Predict the structure.
Amino acid sequence: MTHVVTEACIKCKYTDCVEVCPVDCFHEGSNFLAIDPDECIDCTLCVPECPIDAITTEEDLPPAQHHMLALNAELSRVWPVIVQQKEPLPDHEHWAKETGKLPLLER
């Protein structure tokens, strides 16, 4: 099983989660983070670190977010690894409460 970054992360990109990851499985795009499912060891350390609950287990992924498992796998193959926390995006507070953000994902 792996953990998955959901649509909630889009346009927020909090990176609190990356510093606690013992296997460096997070990958960074311009407005989203992805988890490499082949590297994730299901340790759960990242889950409580996300201030907007954008990380969940594959098992607990809501049906409306199932597409995010494949998207995390796809993007983690092309985006660079991120291991240090950065500031969230400038307008993260506005976007943290929004839903249906998939069309806003920058590849």
